[in-house]
Design brief:
The chain is α/β, with parallel strands linked by helices. It has one domain: Metallo-beta-lactamase, Chain A. Helices cover 26% and strands 26% of the residues. The protein has a 7-stranded mixed sheet. Strands 8-9-10-11-14-15 form a 6-stranded mixed sheet, with no helix packed on it. The protein has a two-stranded antiparallel ribbon with strand order 12-13. The longest helix is centred in the last third of the chain and has 15 residues. The protein is globular and about 50 Å long.
Amino acid sequence: MRVIKKGFLYQVTFMAKVFPVNCYLVEEADGLTLIDAALGFCAKGILQAARTIGKPITKIILTHAHEDHVGALDMLKEALPEVPVYISSRDYRLMNNDRSLDPHEDQTPIKGGVPKSLKTRANILLKEGELVGSLTAIETPGHTPGSMSFLDLRTKALIAGDAFQTRGGIAVAGDLKPWFPFPAFGTWSKKTALASAGKMISYQPKLLAVGHGEMVEEPMFMMEKAIDAFNRKME
C-alpha cells in the first residue's frame, strides 16, 4: 500500500507497480470521506491509512459500482457500521446487478463486473450538484451509466473514478491504452464518456485524481489533449 498526500486529498494505492488500484481519503474538519472501496483485500489498508491520518472515516462515496471500486465495501461496513454509503441514483441499479438501460441512453451493453456476493447497499443516492462535505457531485456517465466525479470546492481537486485514467498514458474512459487497457475494456459508452470528459474540463480542475494511475497537477492541458485524441479516433 502507498499513500500520497496532495492538500486535503490522500491517494491510497494498492499494487502500485503492477495493477494500480486507487481509492481516496478526503480530509474534512470532522473526519475523512472515503471515495471508493478498491478491491476485497484492501479494507485493512484503508482503515490503517485513516488511523495514520488520525481522523475517523465518516462517509463512503462510490464513483461507480464496478468490483475494483466496491470490493472492500462489505468489510469496511463491518468495521464502520454507522458510516453512510453514497452512490449515484443511476449506478445504484448497477449495484443491484440491474443492467437495464433507459431509452435515452446509448443502447450498448453495460460492461464490467459487480461482485455477486456484495451485501452492502448505498443508503444515500446522489444527483448532480449535491454536496457531500466539501465535495460537489458531478454526473459523468460513460464508463458506467451512473458514474460520478467529485470536485473539492476548496482546492478544485477532481476525483474522477474511471472517467479518465493516467496509468499507461492519460486517456478518456473507453480510449484503449495498450499498456493499461482495462478501464477501456470496462467502459459502457465511448460517446457518453467523451461528452462527460468535456463537461469535466468546464470545472477547470487544479488536480486530477483517478482510479488507475498517478495524480496530475494542473491537468487541463493533458485532459484536453486526451479528449482531442479520443475525438480523432471516434471520427
